[in-house]
Amino acid sequence: MSLILKAALAVVLLLAVADASVHHRHQKKGQYQRPGHDLPGASLEDLVETHITGKITCNGNGVDFVRPYLHSDLYPRTIINIVKATDGGEYHLNTGILFDTRGSIDLTVRHQCRIEELPPMKGCAVPYYTTTITIPLDPKVNRITRNLELFEMKRDSTADCLY
To answer: Signal sequence span per UniProt (predicted)?
Structure first.
């Protein structure tokens, strides 16, 4: 029995050494894209974390479980912060200091609240709306409140289709 254990141990060690010498390849999904233009240089003292809070409503009723998120044209296809609205549509986002968000930032909400004078897409299994507003940022102000009544935001919304 001792011989069998020694042989098994030798086989395990050989397999471990052989596996360690194999080069592992990692497949990446997506690719980071640098901004199309040079960003101004900034030090950590120049960057201010801004907190954006508010309430999301549809016809006056709070909308729970939508996920508002922040993004910027300076960082294509990148979500800076995303949260789930709770307690009747209340949300709290922040810009952090990882991204240079001086100037303005976009707040986007995807939802199914019917928007006045903007019909949903026809022939769509899951119609939804995308509402985006631009929020100007001021380094002297670190707390901003934006309440969104989705029903009245035709100018800032598009009708979209999931399937």
So the answer is: 1-20
Please give the C-alpha separations between residue 100 and each of 17, 18, 50, 124, 146, in angstroms, as whole numbers. 46, 46, 11, 38, 21
How far is CA 26 from each of CA 7, 19, 23, 29, rounded to the nearest angstrom?
33, 16, 10, 10
Integer Cα distance of 157 and 129 in angstroms: 7
The count of other CB atoms within 10 Å of the CB of residue 63 is: 22
Q: What mean pLDDT is predicted for residues 12-24?
A: 56
Residue type, 107: L
Q: What domains lie within the chain, and their CATH numbers?
A: 51-161 (2.60.40.10)
- Residue (of 85, 73, 144) closest to 111 by Cα position: 85
